[in-house]
Amino acid sequence: MMKVLAIFGTRPEAIKMAPLVKELGRYPGQISCRVAVTAQHREMLDQVLRLFEIEPEHDLGIMQPGQSLFDITGRALSGLEKVLREEQPDLVLVHGDTTTTFVASLASYYMQIPVGHVEAGLRTGNKFSPFPEELNRRLTGALADLHFAPTARARENLLLEGVRRESIFVTGNTVIDALLGTVSGDYVFTRPELKAIDHRNSRILLVTTHRRENLGEPMRHIYQALREIIESYPDVRIVFPVHKNPAVRSVVDSVLGGLERVHLTEPLDYQPFVNLMQKSYIVLTDSGGMQEEAPSLGKPVLVLRNTTERPEAVDAGTVLLVGTEREAVLRETRRLLDDKDYYRGMAEAVNPYGDGHASRRIAEFILYKYGMTKIPPVGFGG
Ligand code: UD1
Ligand code: UDP
Fold first, then answer.
1. How far apart, in whole angstroms, are the C-alpha atoms of residue 107 and residue 87?
2. Which of 45, 49, 63 to mutate to test the pocket of ligand 1 (most atoms within 8 A of CB)?
3. Ligand 2 pocket mutation, candidates 270, 292, 299, 319, criterion most atoms within 8 A of CB
């Protein structure tokens, strides 16, 4: 029996690892999958664990209010040493590009335990954008033994860095597995403020921001643009589930607090959140994962960042890189609200990131690589 340990710590890692943890549970004679969370996030992580009914075997509980990169790195590294010594897994699985991801890979390397990197090979080429995610994923790539690339482009990035071809497998992104299992046409909101919104007669802008490089002035500029939008379009509503980071909250409250038709909420559970995305008109975000989900639902995305590691939907025309300048955010939002043909062009549903079977492919590649099947798996895109 092969022992796999999945390690993650934040909301998006949990959303994208949950379908894989579930999938690995379907090979009871071959794979035993256990879970360790650093809990770099607390409430936002717990929301996802509850939804997908995952009870971690280890919970390091490292989160502190206003934590620094040093806090996360140090606390996660020392906590994981004990977990790895106790578990002695045959393979550690990590996801994406958070500090938990990098530190879990480093800790595994120190113990000479192989690492499988889910969502491998995303790159902007700019080491400070996004910060510190670009370096987290590059360093994780250097430490990993198996690379689960979501797209062919991600595989190319890894090959260009000299990663061995036979250690890379194109799987699609597990976020699409999670999304397709969660969005439903007849979903009814339980939160009164979401239930009360007349989705048919108002256009909803779904907004989220949290990137470290956007804290402070860039966020203020984004929110000022949103304020102007709400003042000039009476049929527009903004729903903005505000990240728990106090540095985000203070600026949001000072620019958007108390405005009519602006709904500032706590972070939403994944299920209402993606069903709200389904009912939204435009998504404005600096999130990584939402750039993958919204195109699949046919929602135009304005990316509030200067770089993206997810160029596939930009090429497909459903995602636009806008940056954080007030003028640019205002101009591009107005254009989508004013020009129906332009809107329709961006609202095409495209699925460059997956087909809902990424977790199965990852499991099949693991079984193949560890000699538990002789059948070579077929990658995403053939
Ligand atoms: C982290 C990741 C980022 C990822 C994001 C997803 C790093 C360095 N950053 O950024 O890559 O895109 O998660 O959301 O790995 N907080 C709470 N409760 C929670 C979560 C956060 O109170 O459940 C507050 C705490 O005050 C915490 C702060 O938010 O100190 C920031 O959390 P942190 O994980 O350091 O950074 P994120 O911006 O969430
Ligand atoms: N999300 C959620 N509730 C919210 C906001 C986002 O469940 O209130 C989900 C969203 O659908 C996506 C993920 O959280 O799957 C994105 O997380 P985040 O933006 O925090 O991180 P990133 O993707 O940028 O790493």
1. 13
2. 63
3. 270
d(CA 21, CA 18): 5
> Do the beta carbons of residue 170 and residue 155 sit within 8 Å?
yes
Average pLDDT, whole number, for the chain? 97
Structure tokens belonging to residue 163? 């990663």
Residue with tokens 């499991």: 363
Tokens encoding 179? 């999304």
Rounded to the nearest 10 degrees, how much is the dihedral formed by the CA atoms of 51, 211, 243, 249? Answer: 170
Distance 283 CA to ligand 2 centre (A): 12
- Interval 10-38 mean pLDDT: 97
Q: Which atom of ligand 1 is nearest to the CA of 12?
A: 6
CA distances from 368 to 83, 120, 364, 372 (A): 27, 19, 6, 6
157-to-99, 124, 150, 154, 263 alpha-carbon distances in Å: 21, 10, 12, 5, 40
Residues 6+ apart with CB under 8 A from 318: 294, 295, 298, 299, 300, 301, 346, 347, 348, 350
Domains of the chain: 2-173+354-370 (3.40.50.2000), 192-348 (3.40.50.2000)
The DSSP-derived string for 344-377 is HHHT----TT--S-HHHHHHHHHHHHTTS--SPP
| Annotated catalytic residue, options 212, 220, 261, 335 | 212
Q: How confident is the model at residue 294 (pLDDT cuts 50, 70, 90)?
A: very high
Residues 6+ apart with CB under 8 A from 254: none
Q: Is the pLDDT of residue 205 over 80?
A: yes
Cα distance between residue 358 and residue 380, in whole Å? 8
Maximum CA extent, the chain: 62
Q: What digits encode the pLDDT tens for the residues 232-272?
A: 999 999 999 999 999 999 999 999 999 999 999 999 999 99
Residue 163: CB partners within 8 Å, gap ≥ 6? 141, 147
pLDDT tens column, 87-114: 999 999 999 999 999 999 999 999 999 9
User: 348 an active-site residue?
Assistant: no
